[in-house]
Amino acid sequence: GTASSAPSRCHDYRLGRSRAGSTLWSSVPIPGATTLVNNAVSLAATGSHVWLSYQVDRQGAVPQLLESAGGHLPFVRLAQSALYGVQPCTLYPMTSTVHWALCPTGMQESVLRSTNAGRSFAGVWTTFPTVGSLFTPVTAKVAYRYEGVGSKTPQVLERTTDGGSHFRVVAPFPFVGGAGEQFFFLDPNDAYAIGSVKHGKSQTEPTLLFTDDGGVSWHQVVL
Questions:
Q1: Residue 210 three-state SS
Q2: Does the N terminus or the C terminus of the chain have fewer Cβ atoms within 10 A?
């Protein structure tokens, strides 16, 4: 953005775009973003479609979701009251029509899903990141979740294959529990996970694990 007289305040947010492999960039003004004053803008893209999400820090303001073909003007404005959060929702477009959205709401985080390119969203799950819960969308229909220490059952990794309508247990997660676990799915089967595992009777140690069967079994990665 373009700085004002106050060095830390940005009033002119723009979308930068460049062809793959090029060092030349052009900028596109983001409609309505001049009112943000340092609030963040969430960016997501798949194929030639680009989505931007932001919300004005003003009572009664509706979160904005903008769609563009190729990052060019004009943007299509899709007002989405469901995308409220303490920060702009993180968008995960899996196809041109199916989007997941993770919206932080303070101690909790709302997981939403759209099947019409963001014109409407439905709630899927409410997570508690402060107790180690995680949610990772992988495809239009496949996603994984982990409830951390907040789970009433032994800590397990769960998977949905129908867009969040149903979740089924994959396997117990190999970590001792806490709020520091992370996992990164490359596709529905291959993933890495970071967390603490038991080392001896009373000690734990951070470990990097890998799975190639969707979380059924995990193997330590030796660095």
A1: strand
A2: C
Instruction: Give the dihedral sign, CA 195/197/199/202.
Output: positive
The contacts of residue 27 (CB under 8 Å, 6+ apart) are 14, 15, 16, 17
pLDDT of residue 188: 95
Paired strand residues for 213: none
What is the per-residue pLDDT across 182-191, written as a single tens digit (0 to 9) for each? 889 999 999 9
Q: How far apart are CA 204 and CA 196, in angstroms?
A: 6
Cβ neighbourhood burial of 76 (10 Å; 0-12, 13-18, 19+): middle
Task: Provide the edge-to-edge strand list for the sheet that holds 49-54.
Answer: 42-46, 49-54, 64-69, 76-79
**Tokens describing residue 217:** 């079994």
CA nearest to 175, candidates 200, 156, 150, 202: 156
Tell me the pLDDT tens digit for each residue of 116-125: 988 899 999 9
Q: Residue 198 forms beta bridges with which residues?
A: 204
Phi, psi of 38 (to 5 degrees): 80, -5
Residue 57 · residue 37 · CB < 8 Å:
yes
Which segments in the chain show pLDDT lower than 70? 1-9, 37-38, 59-60, 79-81, 150-154, 177-179, 200-202
Closest CA to 175 of 125, 211, 139, 126: 211
DSSP line for 34-67: GG-SS---EEEEETTEEEEEE--SSTTPPPEEEE
Task: Give the predicted TM-score (pTM) of the model.
Answer: 0.83
